[in-house]
Amino acid sequence: YDRAGYPTYSSDGKSFAYMACDNGWECFVVKDWVKSWKYQNISRLTYSPDSKSFAYVAQIDGKLIVVKDGV
Question: Which DSSP category does 62 fall into?
Fold first, then answer.
């Protein structure tokens, strides 16, 4: 990867996620070794307190969106 960051563990310790970018600004989340869709930027990776949900802020076409549980 060109850059990586925001390593995050679930509170129960069973899941791990981080943000990574290839080719400059093709960013994605890797959660439990599975890559998300590509975005312009990603931040604020977080798990719910019960570790059942995962969300982050992503930028696509210049707009910020919240991605929860991969949707």
Answer: T
- CB-CB contact of 17 with 29 (8 Å): yes
| Closest residue by Cα to residue 21 from 34, 49, 40 | 40
Residue 42 and residue 55: Cα distance in Å, rounded? 11
- Angle CA 6–8–12, to nearest 5: 175
Encoded amino acid at 38, one letter: K
Q: What is the pTM of this model?
A: 0.90
pLDDT digits (tens, 9 = 90+) for 40-54: 999 999 999 999 999
